[in-house]
Design brief:
2 domains; about 325 residues; Alpha-Beta Plaits; Cation_efflux_CTD_sf; elongated; about 60% helix; Alpha-lytic protease prodomain-like; mainly alpha
Length: about 325
């Protein structure tokens, strides 16, 4: 269901991008404005990136196979990187073109029609961008979010172009048009870099701290006596889906069936808290007597030390690959 929704919104982005790029180039043909040309050139990128985002969303929705045991979700980060690279390149070109226009001033004409057409595309981009970002977060699709954020930027660029043309109309100073193009070039370059950075983070499995903290909070809230400690927690996002693994320390005298039951409880707990597919693997470690002071297992038949207190599970200790100990030394 999620895949089909992502496909529909990806198609919406592509259709809107094609219509708006034609409109913007028509506005540039009427006005010969450098700012309008800047806006139109950026919109060409919208068409390519929306098409690639649609394809990546389709791929990410494919089921796992022998060659892709974790699914195809990573391709959405590639889509964001592709979009960021194109935006960065366009920003550099736009900035250099604006420098040339500054050195060689040009005339601007039919400003009323130009502002009207560009203003209409700005409204369309804002509405489409809002829908894509909202649905992208809801459907956990980095490609949709990235595409929507790009449309936001495109709308802002268009509004700056409209403001510049308005100033030219009322003052007769063409310099406003060129200055607007320079500003837009810088903004576009910065945005392209940020998108590339986000893409690299996803492809390199950079830790999603918010998701890690959410999992830790769920484990802490529903903590059970046999779960003596949780450590080496790792979370990798594959598009919308999550792969989670961790180690759980449980009483060493548990049978294989009892250990399996506790592991299953943890896995079901976490899966039930996310509305995306969660693949979770829990490795069970046997406890040692040094864990007795922070083990609340009732009627433990092998306890060597009195229970002192539980060690709270936090981001600082759960992600480490080491078992938890109390700060104070234990006594026999």
């Amino acid at each position: 269901m999620f895949a089909s929704k992502r496909n529909r919104f990806g198609l919406l982005s592509l259709v809107v991008s094609v219509v708006l790029v034609v409109t913007k180039f028509y506005a540039w043909a009427l006005t010969h404005s450098q700012a309008a040309l800047t806006d139109a050139l950026e919109s060409i990128i919208n068409v390519f990136t929306s098409g690639f985002a649609l394809y990546s969303i389709y791929l990410s929705g494919l089921p796992k196979d022998e060659n892709h045991p974790y699914g195809h979700g990573k391709v959405e980060y590639l889509s964001v990187g592709f979009e960021g690279a194109l935006i960065l390149g366009a920003g550099v070109y736009i900035f250099s073109s604006a420098i040339q226009a500054l050195l060689h001033p040009h005339t601007v004409q039919q400003l009323d029609w130009g502002v009207l057409l560009l203003g209409g595309t700005a409204v369309a981009n804002l509405l489409t961008g809002f829908v894509l970002v909202r649905q992208g977060h809801k459907l956990h699709s980095p490609a949709l979010v990235g595409d929507g954020q790009h449309l936001y930027l495109d709308a802002v660029s268009t509004l700056v172009s409209c403001a510049a043309l308005g100033l030219v109309y009322f003052t007769g100073l063409v310099i406003f048009d060129t200055v607007a193009a320079l500003i837009l070039g810088v903004v576009i370059v910065v945005n392209g870099y940020r998108m590339l950075r986000r893409s690299v983070s996803g492809l390199m499995d950079e830790s999603d701290v918010a998701t890690v903290e959410r999992v830790i909070a769920e484990l802490q809230q529903h903590r059970q006596p046999p779960w003596i400690d949780v450590h080496n927690l790792r979370i990798v996002r594959y598009g919308a889906n999550l792969h989670i693994d961790c180690h759980i320390t449980i009483p060493y005298y548990f049978s294989l069936e009892e250990a399996h039951a506790e592991v299953s409880r943890i896995e079901e707990l976490i899966r039930s808290r996310f509305d995306v597919e969660v693949e979770m693997f829990v490795h069970a470690d046997p406890c040692t007597f040094s864990a007795c002071p922070h083990c609340s297992m009732p009627d433990c038949p092998v306890r060597q030390h009195a229970f002192t207190r539980l060690v709270p599970w936090t981001l600082d200790n759960v992600v480490k690959n080491e078992r938890h100990q109390l700060d104070e030394p234990t006594t026999a």
